[in-house]
Amino acid sequence: MKGKLDGTKLEHIKETISNYAIASSIASVAACAIPGVAGVVAALTQGGFVWATYVKINNTLGISMSENTAKFIGSAILTNIVTCSGVLLISYAGAAVLSFIPIWGQIGAAAINGALGYIMIYVAALIYLQLITKMMQPDGTLKVMEEDDTKHIIEDIIKQNDLKKMIEEGRNSYKSAKADGSIDQAKKHPKCPNCGAEVKPGQKFCSDCGTAL
Predict the structure, then answer these.
(1) Which of 35, 51, 119, 193 is most open to solvent, judged by the fewest CB atoms within 10 Å of its CB?
(2) C-beta contacts of 12-15 below 8 A and 24+ residues apart
(3) For residue 33, what is the DSSP state?
(4) What percent of the chain has pLDDT over 90?
(5) Are 90 and 83 spatial neighbours (Cβ–Cβ below 8 Å)?
(6) Nearest-angstrom CA–CA distance, 49 and 105
């Protein structure tokens, strides 16, 4: 990337992935308050966090990309991750079934969705970083090709990688975030995903930068 990816930017990208993965985990747990459709709501929530992660990474790297393009890429990557991983499909289905069972079933569904929320953002971010290196032009700009071409590149990246290993890496990172208190801290002191300012529960817009929460 022509020397653009220095140590500071790498740290910002790592922090972005961690923050959005944690936020997605918390939001996915909250989705279990809706019995029966918890899995669907959680998946939609995770999709939103994925493209938001991409936008934040793009800002760090100075890449110009519309939100619609980020959403398209995010949807394509998530679809490929889920369809290529039987474990994730079973997990989503299991969470949906458990959400019908009062109290203990919903607790189980929340635990599954919390892990899935983190893992999906983590893995989707790793794949996206590989995608943009393949689409980066010599002048440092990013060329997003026709939809089918981009989808084929995403499919090739997933085929060339050990998806099972990436999911396991995401699961281990989630366990670490739980063990070191990062997730509990995020619950107590939620922050704006755009500028990092602390926000209050129920707040709809960041008071510092105006980002929709």
Answers:
(1) 35
(2) 12/60, 13/57, 13/60, 13/61, 13/129
(3) G
(4) 19
(5) no
(6) 25
Short-list 157, 117, 128, CA closest to 60: 128
- Can you read off the two tokens belonging to residue 62? 């100075």
* Half-sphere exposure at residue 60, Cβ-oriented, CA atoms within 13 angstroms: 22
Q: Other CB atoms closer than 10 Å to residue 185's CB: what's the count?
A: 13
Whether 78 and 46 have beta carbons less than 8 Å apart is answered as yes
Residues 6+ apart with CB under 8 A from 50: 24, 74, 77, 78, 120, 121, 124, 125
Q: pLDDT class for 34, splitting at 50, 70, 90?
A: low
> How many other CB atoms sit within 10 Å of the CB of residue 60?
18
pTM: 0.84
**Calpha distance 115→71 (Å, rounded):** 22
In Å, the largest CA–CA distance within the chain is 56
Report pLDDT digits (tens) over 45-88.
888 889 889 988 988 888 888 778 888 888 889 888 888 888 88
Strand partners, 205: 212
Joined tokens for residue 203: 């707040």
